[in-house]
Amino acid sequence: FIDTLFKVEEFIKFQLSKIIPVFNLFDGHQLLDKEKNKVFIQCIHLIESYGSVTDGYERILEDMRFPSEDIILMINEIDKYGEETGTERKLIKIRNDREVFEKLSPFGRKIIDSYINK
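Above: the chain sequence. Below: its structure as tokens.
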């Protein structure tokens, strides 16, 4: 369920980000009245800032209670398993990569092991 929400969020973020170049074009030629379009401009800036929030997997891993140093390591690794559906399955793949798994803290390894034993 969480992965589906993540995909929906990414799709929405992608669709909204298409507005930004159009805004920059109009703004660059000073075609927008900043007073009349104040709310629109604020929305554009919110969309821009939303695009720079933390990675979706980072939030998922934080919710799973992984330590921050493990999250940093796993963010780079989890993208390698894009063909897998579900964060848990991706974590199990990381578990099978002994080199990466051994770099995790004991807490991170225990969390991953808990998904294998389900």
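The two ends are 17 Å apart (CA to CA).
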